[in-house]
Every structure is written in C-alpha cells, then in structure tokens.
Amino acid sequence: DIQMTQSPSSLSASVGDRVTIACRASQSISTYLNWYRQKPGKAPKLLIHTASSLQSGVPSRFSGSGFGTDFTLTISSLQPEDFATYYCQQTYIAPWTFGQGTKVEIK
Amino acid sequence: EVQLVESGGGLVQPGGSLRLSCAASGFSFSVYNMNWVRQAPGKGLEWITYISSGSSTTYYADSVKGRFTISRDNAQNSLYLQMNSLRAEDTAMYYCARGADYFYYMDVWGKGTTVTVSS
C-alpha cells in the first residue's frame, strides 16, 4: 500500500498568515493527490484535486502543487473558518490512502 | 441540491452485522463511482471501499476485506455497506462519498452515520 506522510502534524497560526502543509507519498503517484479540510464534527470537504486543481466553489486562497512524491497545500491568508484538520489522499492505486492529518490551530 | 444521506448506524455487539445505506439526490447517481470512508473517534480518515458506477469493479481496504460488502441500486439511487463479523475497531463514523471518474477524488460527502461495536 502507498503510505502518505503529512508534515507538520499540527501548527499554530494567526488569521492572515500564509500556511503551507506538506504531503509525501511512499512511491510516485503522478498527480493523483487530493486535499480535504475537515472541521470538528463535520464531514470532510474537497479543496484541491489532482494536485493543483481548485475544486469548484473553493476560495482562491487555497492552492496545491507537486508531482510524483512531494506535494504541498498552501493557504495564502488564513481565515477563521480554516482552523481545521487537513488531509492529503492518494487515489493513484487502491487502496486509496490518506495522510494522518495536519491540525491547524489558532495561535 | 446535490446530497448524500447515510443511515443505518447504531450499536451492535462484536461479531454482529449491520447494513448501512446512503441515499443520493440532486445528481445522476448511476454514472458516478461511490466510496465509503470511516473515521474512528479522535482518529484520521480511512478509505474502506469503492464501487464503480455499474458495480463491475469494487475495491476494499485490507482491514475490511472479507467482512464488508459494498453494493448499489442505481434504480433506487442508493449505496449500501453490509458489515459482518464486526469488531470493536470498526467503531467509527461512516461516510459515503461520491467519486470522480479517472482520478477518483471524492467531491461530495454525506454527513455520516455512527457505528458503535460494543458488548
């Protein structure tokens, strides 16, 4: 199975900060990499698919990049609703696997 | 409105069975792949199973293979998860999620249904 490793596991930031989360795959996954945001007690929400494509309706402060094994999610200006947990996921080879999550907390 | 609504969760004893349902509305269910994803209390997301639009292809995580069965009824716009031989470690929130073609990302999620396995 492909292992997905996110870093950091948690971070503290302020409203307006630029935040970057990294995700590394244990083998090349081309651009089959997706990012989700999950607020407490809610279902996950797709933010970015295929490494860098912004999902319809998602604010442009979110962006993704990467290819192969190394990927990043960037939030250009953190908003109050962005304090949540973020997950990367590979859908290159089943079983689709998620990273362990990155919790973004208020500083 | 595009919507997925899960049901069928509850408390079940170890070794028992449960069938989850997911009702789809607001889109052409029959042309979309579907998934179940779960989340144990305080833990991360775990994808557990996938079914193609026409039911010809299914995939399972090793953790549920041989115990869980995914199925769908396109005429009823419904997705199902039959869970047998349940274990304490199957305790989780279970989400159904719509899957995109080709790249398989999950673009629509239900609110989830809770399964608790305990004696």
State the gist of this model.
By secondary structure, chain A is an all-beta fold. In chain A, 0% of the residues lie in helices and 50% in strands.
Structure description:
- The complex is a heterodimer of chains A (107) and B (119).
- By secondary structure, chain A is an all-beta fold.
- The model of chain A has no long low-confidence stretch (mean pLDDT 97).
- In chain A, the strands form 2 sheets. In chain A, strands 2, 4, 5, 6, 9, 10 and 11 form a 7-stranded mixed beta sheet that branches.
- Chain A is globular, with a radius of gyration of 13 Å.
- Chain A is 0% helix and 50% strand.
- Chain B has 119 residues and is an all-beta fold.
- The chains are: A mainly beta (107), B mainly beta (119).
Query: What Rg of chain B is obtained from the alpha carbons, in whole angstroms?
Result: 13 Å
Number of strands of chain B: 11
Instruction: Determine the strand fraction of chain A and express it as a percent band.
Output: over 45%
Low-pLDDT ranges of chain B:
none
How many angstroms does the end-to-end distance of chain B come to?
Answer: 39 Å
Distance between the termini of chain A: 36 Å
Largest sheet: number of strands, sense, barrel closure of chain A: 7 strands, mixed
Overall pLDDT metric of chain A: 97
Class by SSE composition of chain A: mainly beta
Order of helices and strands of chain A: EEEEEEEEEEE
Which spans of chain A of ≥5 residues are poorly predicted at pLDDT below 50? none
- Fraction of residues in H or I helices of chain B: under 10%
